[in-house]
Each structure stands twice: as C-alpha cells, then as structure tokens.
Amino acid sequence: MERRPSPTRGEQTPAVESGGDWNALLSQYGQAMMRLGQLEKELGDLQQRLQTQQGNGKDELDTALEEKNEELSRRGDLIASLRLQVSSLNEELARTQEKLKLAADGRYIRRRHRRSRPWWKLWDSRR
Asked: Which of 55, 83, 106, 107 is deepest in the core (most CB within 10 A)?
C-alpha cells in the first residue's frame, strides 16, 4: 500500500478542486453586489431629481422610483439567498478540509454502511 504525501498549502486535492460551484457562486454574489451598488446609485439620482423638480412629472418619477425600489428589493432577496448558500458552502468546505487533514494523518476512519444479507444467504457463515 503506497501512501501519497499530504498536499502542501498551494496544492489542491481532488475533493477540494470541486470548488467550481463555490467559485461560480462567489462570482454571482460579486455581480449581484455590483448591480446592487448601481441600483442604489440610480435610486439616489432619481430621488435627487425628484427633489429638484418637485411636481414637474412627479408621477413619472414616482413610477420609476417604485420600479427601482421593487428591483432593489428583488436583488436584496437574491443577495440574501446567495449569502445563505455561501455560508453553507463555507461550512461544508471547512468539514471537508478537516476530513482531508485527518485522512492525510491517517486518523480518519471511513464509516461504511453494512449491507444486510439477502434472505437466501442467512445460513451462509462466510462474508
């Protein structure tokens, strides 16, 4: 039985390389945060225009402002769900890294599910 050396700090193991989902999720989160910043800036601009015009085309600005508020609210919901996904993936990553450390030290015991014998092999004492 040949034992592989444990990965160094910069190397990735196959179990950790499956972080493609993690990277994609972080990318989506970053894009959503950038879009949120843009929407907040647009909201501020619209509010400023509303204050300067005070009454001229107030209905148009109100509808535009309401639309932006709704979009901002939807984006906020998306960001909240992305934060939840990031935190759960972060916890899973920490557990996996701990298992990899234990496996590299030879202290991780894998638990295997015991299969029950088929009914026709009940008298067979061999396993």
From this structure: 83
Which residues 6+ apart lie within 8 Å of 92 measured at CB? none
Decide: 117 and 124 in contact? Cβ < 8 Å. yes
Is residue 117 assigned to a domain?
no
User: pLDDT of 19-53, one tens digit each?
Assistant: 678 888 888 998 999 999 999 999 999 888 878 77
Count CA atoms closer than 13 A to 45's CA, side-chain side: 8
How far apart are the C-alpha atoms of 100 and 6, rounded to whole Å? 9
Strands (DSSP E) contained in the chain are: none
State the pLDDT confidence band at 14, using cuts at 50, 70 and 90: very low
User: Is the overall model pTM greater than 0.85, yes or no?
Assistant: no
> Is 9 within a domain?
no
CA distance 103 to 3: 11
